[in-house]
Amino acid sequence: MDKSHIQSLITIIHEELVPYFVIESVHPHHPIEVRSIPSPWELLGTGNYAAVVYHPEYPDVVVKMYAPGRPGFEEELAVYQRLGSHPAFSECFYAHDGLLVLRRLFGVTLYDCLHRGLRIPPKIIKDIDHALDYARTRGLYPHDVHGKNVMMFEGKGLVVDISDFLQQEKCSKWDDLKRAYYLIYLPIFYRLGLRVPYSFLNKVRKSYRFIRSVADNFSQFMNKLIKGNS
C-alpha cells in the first residue's frame, strides 16, 4: 500500500471522521451503537467493542474504531504487529488512541457460503490452516476461529478476526469445523451444492455451543478429579 495514499487518508480521518463519528457501547455483550457518522463515510459493521467504516475514495482500507471505555485495542494492535504482512490476514497501517487503519479483506464468510450454496473447496480449508500455522510461528494462539470469522475470495482462504489471538487457552472451534467439513459438508453439501437456511445454521450454532460447553465442563471436572486422586 502506497504510504502517501495512507497518509492522505490519515489526515482525512483525523479532520473529518474522528470529530464527528460518535459510537457508544451500551452493553458489553451487544454490538455498539452508532450515534453519528459523517458523510461520505460508510458503516461496514459493528461488534461488541468497535465499529468498522470506510471512505468511498479509499475502498481498499477500513478504519476500526473502538468505543470509549471498551478494551481490546492494545491487544489487537499487538497481534497485527506480530503478524506483519501475510496474504491471509489483514494488515495494520496505522494505529492511534483506539483507532486502527487496516487493509480491507473482501470475500464471503464460510457461514454465508453455506447459506448461499457456494461450494467451499478443500483448498480454502488448507489456506486457513496454513495461515493459522503461520500465526503460531509468530507467537500467537489462534482463538475463536469459526465460520463467521473466515472467508473465501477468488479461491483463497482468509482469516478475518484475529482480536483474540493472544489468548493462550485452548480453543477447538476450528478443529471442530474442519471435522464437520470433511465428514459432512464435503461428501454431501459440496457435491450437491445445497443451500442451508440461516434458521437451521443458527440452530446448529447454538447446539454446538451447548454441546461444547458441556464437553469442556466435563473435561475440567475429570481433570480436577484425576489431580485430586493423584
Automatic annotation (TrEMBL):
GO terms for molecular function: protein serine/threonine kinase activity. It comes from Okeanomitos corallinicola TIOX110. Keywords: Kinase, Serine/threonine-protein kinase, Transferase. This is Serine/threonine protein kinase.
